[in-house]
Amino acid sequence: MTTISIINLKGGVGKTVSAINIAFVLSSLHGQRVLLIDNDKQANSTKFFSLHSDDDPSMAEILTVKGIDAADVIKHTQYSGLDVLPANMSLLRANKEALIDTTRPQQTRLKRALKSVTGRYDYCLIDNAPDVNISVINALMITDDVLVPVKIDKFAFDGLDVLAEQVEEVKEANERLNFAGCFITMFQRNNINTQGLELLRREAKYPVFQTVIRNTVKVGETTFSGEPLQEYSKNSTAARDYVSLVDEYLGLEKRGGAIG
Ligand SMILES: Nc1ncnc2c1ncn2[C@@H]1O[C@H](COP(=O)(O)OP(=O)(O)OP(=O)(O)O)[C@@H](O)[C@H]1O
Ligand SMILES: [Mg+2]
């Protein structure tokens, strides 16, 4: 199982939309068995697939219940080959609880809980919260590739250094962890976007994907319809862009290195 963390300390940059659509492209177009982990108390990925519950076990229990098995938490979506490990607001409490409870390892609880299911999936996508908390550290501990969606604005690059530092730190405990690259989301053909993209590429501090995800009203519409872009409007710009992004990522994976 290859695990991809979608992460950015900034909110509203397209993490959830990217996690959902990358997961769906991998399962529907590439025939891969995919697990999407919702690692955010906002539970947007979970709600997208109408799998939200305040009562069922979720990421919160993965972090706090000793001996829990992810197989008892994971839910099927209506799409074959795509399952979700759901979240709900209890993740807020669970993060605090896991931080205080030092009686057993705090950073490898997700890893331990997933042990029984890793053979069932080819890819695991993690939709992370805009934060570095215990649950995000748990995600990084099982991650192979970090993908960072970036929305171009004045503050777009804030936090990237902190995130890269965090990745470096976790690398000491998880040597498979790789900062695969940033990609632009909600791209609009205007000066700010074009200049921002050039700046990101020129500085070349971090690998940047060639593919940009274009801005389209279709994305907002999918949050109401609950269908991934491929299902809702497969010829829309962003639908085609996510297909390209996955192709670029898979090519990268085959070559086995980060892009420059
Ligand atoms: N390509 C796009 N075109 C138009 N709107 C988009 C696009 N990608 C994302 N959005 C919109 O931007 C908003 C933020 O997206 P999303 O929820 O994926 O961000 P996020 O990084 O997960 O946010 P949070 O940090 O709160 O979890 C949403 O309203 C979403 O519909
Ligand atoms: Mg989100």
Task: Report what the structure shows.
- Pfam families: AAA_31.
- Residues 1-177 form the AAA domain.
- InterPro entries: AAA_dom, DNA_Partitioning_ATPase, P-loop_NTPase.
- This is ParA family protein.
- The protein is of the alpha/beta class and 260 residues long.
- It has one domain: P-loop containing nucleotide triphosphate hydrolases (Rossmann fold, 3-Layer(aba) Sandwich).
- The chain has eleven helices and seven strands.
- The chain has a seven-stranded mixed sheet, sandwiched between helices.
- The model has no long low-confidence stretch (mean pLDDT 95).
- The structure holds adenosine-5'-triphosphate (ATP) and magnesium ion.
- Adenosine-5'-triphosphate is lined by residues 11-17, 40, 42, 44, 130, 185-186, 213, 215-216, 219-220, 223, 238.
- Residues 15-16, 40, 42, 44, 127 line the site of magnesium ion.
CATH topology: Rossmann fold
Strand content: 5-15%
How would you write the strand order of the largest sheet? Answer: 3-4-2-5-1-6-7
Give me the Rg, rounded.
Answer: 17 Å
Could you say which structural class the secondary elements and strand pairing correspond to? alpha/beta
Would you tell me the overall average pLDDT?
95
Protein name: ParA family protein
InterPro entries: AAA_dom (IPR025669), DNA_Partitioning_ATPase (IPR050678), P-loop_NTPase (IPR027417)
Domain AAA: 1-177
Organism: Caproicibacter fermentans
